[in-house]
Design brief:
alpha+beta; protein ne1242 fold
Amino acid sequence: MDKSKKGGADKPRPTLPTVRRETYNGHEIVIPTDERSKRISIDGRSVYYGVTNGGEYYLDKYAYDRAKSLDEVIKRYVDYLDRVEKSGREGK
């Protein structure tokens, strides 16, 4: 079918966000490749992140720990979650 008879060019199709999926210490991590999102997912829970003026990444839920890479700050947060979970189990 001739597109010109339809009244113009095709409308652009919406694109799905591109993500990077990883597993770290048994935790499923989803990181959008578009950093404008400022939101990652750890085990299905949204975690927002920011970048300081000095270029360091931090997570809103763990803001006092900062790192030069988003991957590093995520790993530190996951390690923290594991320590909290372990200490909770040991305390019972």
